[in-house]
Amino acid sequence: QVQLVESGGDLVQPGGSLRLSCAASGFNISKYGMSWSRQAPGKGLEWVSGILPAGSSYSSDSAKGRFTISRDNAKNTLYLQMNSLKPEDTALYFCVRGWGASSSLMGQGTQVTVSS
To answer: Rg of the chain over CA atoms, in angstroms?
Structure first.
């Protein structure tokens, strides 16, 4: 079965860190660009960070310097390390195969809440 399953979301205090994981099955993530997007309450989907098959990574201005995307091809798993979390990072985070117009598969999401 082709699917993406996110985990690692939690309630964390401002300034804290979390690592999100995305386990892929049914396809090899090393052959695809992969990304993370998020949706805050009452807002649209926002692209956060992406990584190409060759390993180049890109992040939105809001994530740059705080979030790091990576993948473990042996585990077929994508990660998002999030540091210095802010209340405005509160959102449902989705793992995506591709990004933008090339998006072809999305997981069910994992909730990140940043609050004191």
So the answer is: 13
Distance CA 65, CA 46 (A): 17
pLDDT digits 0-9 by tens, 24-68: 999 999 999 999 999 999 999 999 999 999 999 999 999 999 999
> How many angstroms from the chain centroid is the CA of residue 72?
14
What is the spatial distance between Cα 3 and Cα 56, in angstroms, rounded to a whole number?
23
Q: Give counts: helices (H), strands (E), the chain.
A: 0, 11
Integer Cα distance of 110 and 57 in angstroms:
21
Backbone angles phi, psi at 103, to 5 degrees: -65, 130
